[in-house]
Design the sequence.
């Protein structure tokens, strides 16, 4: 007390000190309050900027794309509302429970500790919302969570169904018969029961099952768990927990879960002889648990604790059902292992039938490819060459790597462009490698100039493409084919600007900032006026505060299509399943003679995981999108005839979708490589239609590999068996899976002309054929071991072998393999050093290799070696072989025939006459031809040289040497000559 009194006496002194201190300084600022205001302001600005930017983008999308943009939004909204309602809307209006609001109320009660001690906790089962609140909450849940449950294909299917169309719902009841049916050994059962259900099972059932599963998880599992926990907490506070009541609720939850699992087994893709027992076991077990739960709920009114008998009876029931069901299934598997064909065969037959339908394998024609034993007589060599000259002059000698290397210098000294892709195109029967470009930002652009350069300068690729002939490697003028060559909408690759930035320019500009000072006057993009332009890009607030801006967005065509048509797959994975390498779907430029477009395949991936005997998904080529490279306009052409393609056509017909392919596109359309590879991967397994052969797995195919990588398909001009004329086709060779010989079992072709687009044919080599078809790796090994090639390779500068593509030339299977050489300035592939023609068929295992400067010479050399004619540096090995002389030696022997006739051979630099007559043709390519050639020469001299001057004039024209007499008739000089083919 003394201390307190003392302090009270001193208090005026302390007060005086405090007051004096405060008088000598300014009021202190509330730093915390200022910080809170600053943080709140910053967050408000950020939220406003993000929301306004996204709102402006949405408004711009609607303005620029209209119904094409809003239609997917409609399907998404429609499906989201339906599926969210299935998942979230409670129908028990009497109980009016809500997990969310019960949790909020409980959490608030816990936070108010002082009040909570005096307030009794309400159990979940006793919690009830008011009628109006309950109804509003159901609506609010659907609105809030609908975007999470959206499914575009489901929404489209529902809309199609609402318009009075049938998508197979009438046959969906068959799904419950299938597991218990007596399945025959033929696939007709699946064709009759499963195939009609495909539309419903792929478009409607997967989202519905997923939504129902989630609903059961929420309103049976989660709701039941919350109810048990809350009731236990209340009972525990009152020290009278009712364990039997909790157990009964758990039993009902377990039973409902097991029943739902059993129901889902009807929609399982793996159905066999044990599925019926698995379904029966799960239904029996689930029903037992629900029955026990209902019984225990009734008993829990008077009984608190379960007895041991109670627990043992439940466990025993579960054990009996599991053991009985498992025993039956194990016994069945044991029997099936011993009698695979009888037990597994019927289900295998259905699997084959379903997958052949899914992947359109029934449409693949199979031709029995009876390869003839390779043979030829020396005298028939030139005839065969001449008969196949059209095919030989269109061999694809330049592969993508070589073409890309040769096209690179054509861009000149440009650091703002690079090639993003190189595609094989065809015009007028000729194949061309076409490199398409994309703009990129030069590395030396200063950071302060980056935004301006990306958006206003490098807006497009002014050099859109460069081209070279795929057979000769000659650079061609792309203007011959593509009149419009500026690309504003295109591919981006890894460094391109199209998928990274948008471009813009002020309306009413008098000076262009774009590359070449080009003024864009197309329809792509949308006009944006201030202040919307400020919200879209704040820089415009300072740089163009009062000027409307024309903005071009979504310039990467893959990104653009994914925004407008999100139903399709735009990235494909290649490589192993454990390490797939994804890349955008391949597109190529096409033209109608004026405008240039991208031709993009439209491939839909449909979920088939709920279809009996199917794989997880299937791909369907719906059609193509034609995207204007200058304006970005998109047209949809539907070429598929499956149910999804038909739905797509009907739903988008009002927006311009059509099934009529423009005439100008018929010569440029190409079946997509991705679909070709996919179909072949399924054909490799499901070409086997016999269940016994399928189970034995002896006839599965695979794609040949080179350097541990699958050899991709080639697009070439060739003349397969049965074709009247050479055609531009996709080509993929196939071998027996796991075979050590690496011989081909045949090859697949796909047509690219409009009349037969997508038509595939497998040319199958019979397994008992005496003639073996060499694989591509074997062809390269044969070339590497060839003596002539070994000698030639030492003379070539840094040689690289190109693609080894199998062609059928007449009756001969021949691989044409180009060998490239590099220039001395850095290793860029610049020319072909030689062409190898490797025979692909043999009975004895001996394969011949021909070499030449072009495919004609290489094929001729191959035929000569096949005929038994040895080269002049090889000794004769048989009576039927003669030496083949080099070209100059043969010409000298021809000249000697004229000299022996008393004529002097004269070789003028040029020869020209008003009239020329080719009187005689002859051939001298091998020594056996000489007698006939000599006789032709002597007859020519006798008929046209008699009485003329003692001179004959010689000149050469490609592979021919010509000899002629100049005769004056009525004052006009005429040239009468003989043409001799010397190769």
Sequence:
């Amino acid at each position: 007390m003394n201390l307190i009194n003392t302090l009270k006496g001193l208090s005026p002194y302390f007060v005086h000190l405090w007051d004096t201190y405060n008088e000598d300084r300014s009021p202190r600022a509330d730093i915390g309050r200022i910080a809170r205001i600053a943080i709140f302001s910053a967050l408000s600005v950020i939220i406003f900027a993000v929301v306004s930017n996204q709102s402006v983008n949405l408004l711009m999308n609607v303005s620029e794309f209209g119904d094409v943009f809003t239609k997917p939004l409609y399907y998404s909204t429609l499906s989201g509302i339906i599926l969210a309602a299935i998942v979230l809307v409670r129908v028990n209006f009497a109980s009016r429970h809500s997990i969310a609001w019960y949790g909020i109320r409980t959490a608030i009660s816990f936070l108010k500790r002082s009040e909570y001690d005096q307030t009794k906790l309400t159990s979940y089962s006793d919690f009830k919302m008011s009628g109006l609140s309950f109804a509003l909450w159901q609506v609010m849940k659907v609105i809030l969570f609908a975007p999470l449950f959206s499914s575009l294909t489901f929404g489209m299917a529902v809309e199609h169904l609402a318009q009075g169309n049938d998508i197979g719902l009438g046959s969906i009841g068959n799904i419950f018969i299938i597991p218990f049916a007596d399945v025959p050994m033929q696939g007709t059962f699946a064709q009759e029961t499963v195939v009609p259900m495909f539309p419903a099972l792929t478009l409607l059932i997967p989202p519905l099952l997923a939504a129902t599963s989630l609903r059961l998880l929420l309103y049976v599992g989660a709701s039941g768990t919350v109810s048990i926990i809350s009731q236990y907490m209340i009972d525990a506070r009152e020290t009278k927990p009712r364990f039997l009541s909790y157990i009964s609720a758990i039993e009902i939850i377990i039973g409902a879960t097991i029943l739902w699992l059993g129901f889902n087994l009807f929609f399982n893709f793996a159905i066999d002889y044990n599925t019926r027992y698995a379904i029966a076991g799960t239904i029996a077990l689930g029903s037992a648990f629900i029955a026990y739960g209902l019984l225990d709920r009734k008993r829990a009114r008077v009984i608190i604790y379960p007895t041991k008998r109670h627990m043992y009876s439940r466990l025993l029931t579960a054990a009996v059902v599991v053991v009985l069901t498992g025993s039956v299934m194990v016994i069945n598997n044991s029997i099936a292992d011993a009698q695979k064909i009888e037990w597994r065969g019927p289900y295998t037959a259905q699997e084959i039938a379903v997958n052949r339908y899914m992947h359109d394998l029934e449409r693949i024609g199979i031709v029995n490819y009876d390869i003839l034993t390779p043979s030829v007589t020396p005298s028939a060599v030139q005839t065969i060459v001449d008969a196949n000259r059209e095919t030989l002059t269109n061999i694809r000698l330049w592969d993508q790597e070589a073409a890309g290397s040769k096209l690179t210098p054509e861009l000149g000294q440009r650091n703002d462009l690079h090639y993003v892709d190189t595609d094989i195109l065809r015009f007028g029967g000729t194949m061309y490698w076409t490199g398409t470009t994309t703009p990129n930002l030069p590395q030396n652009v200063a950071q302060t100039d980056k935004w301006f350069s990306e958006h206003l300068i490098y807006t497009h690729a002014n050099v859109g493409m460069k081209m070279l002939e795929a057979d000769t490697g000659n650079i061609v003028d792309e203007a011959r084919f593509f009149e419009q060559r500026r690309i504003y909408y295109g591919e981006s690759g890894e460094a391109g600007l199209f998928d990274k930035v948008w471009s813009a320019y002020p309306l009413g500009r008098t000076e262009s900032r774009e590359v070449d000072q080009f003024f864009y006057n197309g329809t792509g993009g949308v006009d944006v006026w201030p202040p919307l332009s400020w919200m879209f890009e704040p820089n415009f607030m300072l740089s163009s505060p009062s000027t409307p801006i024309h903005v071009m967005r979504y310039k990467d065509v893959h990104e653009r299509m994914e925004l407008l048509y999100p139903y399709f797959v735009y990235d494909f994975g290649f490589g192993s399943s454990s390490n797939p390498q994804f890349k955008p779907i391949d597109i190529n430029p096409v033209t109608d003679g004026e405008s240039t477009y991208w031709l993009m395949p439209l491939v839909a991936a449909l979920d088939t995981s709920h279809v009996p005997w199917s794989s997880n998904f299937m791909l369907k080529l719906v059609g193509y999108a034609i995207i204007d490279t200058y304006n970005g306009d998109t047209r949809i052409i539907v070429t598929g005839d499956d149910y999804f393609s038909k739905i797509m056509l009907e739903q988008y017909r009002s927006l311009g979708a059509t099934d009529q392919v423009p005439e100008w596109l018929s010569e440029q359309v190409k079946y997509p490589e991705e679909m070709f590879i996919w179909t072949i991967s399924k054909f490799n397994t499901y070409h086997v239609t016999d269940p016994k052969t399928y189970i034995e797995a002896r006839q599965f195919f695979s794609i040949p590999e080179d350097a541990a990588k699958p050899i991709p398909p080639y697009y070439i001009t060739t003349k397969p068996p049965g074709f009247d004329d050479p055609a531009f086709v996709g080509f993929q060779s196939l071998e027996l899976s796991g075979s050590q010989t690496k011989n081909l079992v045949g090859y697949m072709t796909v047509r690219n002309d409009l009349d037969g687009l997508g038509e595939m044919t497998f040319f199958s080599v019979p397994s008992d054929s005496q003639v073996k078809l060499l694989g591509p790796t074997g062809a390269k090994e044969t070339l590497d071991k060839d003596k002539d090639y070994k000698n030639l390779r030492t003379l070539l500068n840094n040689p690289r072998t190109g693609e080894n593509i199998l062609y059928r030339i007449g009756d001969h299977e021949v691989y044409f393999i180009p060998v490239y050489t590099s220039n001395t300035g850095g290793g860029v592939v610049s020319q072909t050093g030689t062409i190898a023609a490797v025979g692909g068929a043999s009975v004895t295992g001996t394969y011949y290799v021909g070499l030449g400067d072009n495919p004609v010479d290489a094929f001729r050399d191959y035929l000569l070696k096949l005929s038994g004619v040895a080269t002049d540096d090889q000794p004769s090995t048989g009576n039927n072989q003669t030496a083949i002389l080099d070209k100059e030696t043969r010409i000298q022997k021809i000249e000697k025939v004229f000299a022996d006739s008393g004529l002097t051979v004269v070789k003028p630099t040029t020869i020209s006459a008003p009239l020329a007559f080719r009187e005689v043709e002859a051939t001298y390519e091998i020594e056996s031809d000489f007698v006939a050639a000599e006789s032709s020469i002597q007859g020519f001299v006798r008929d046209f040289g008699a009485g003329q001057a003692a001179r004959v004039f010689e000149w050469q024209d490609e592979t021919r040497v010509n000899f002629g007499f100049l005769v004056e008739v009525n004052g006009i000089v005429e040239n009468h000559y003989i043409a001799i083919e010397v190769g």
User: Anything to note?
Assistant: DSSP finds 29 helices and 35 strands in the chain. The longest strand covers residues 596-607.
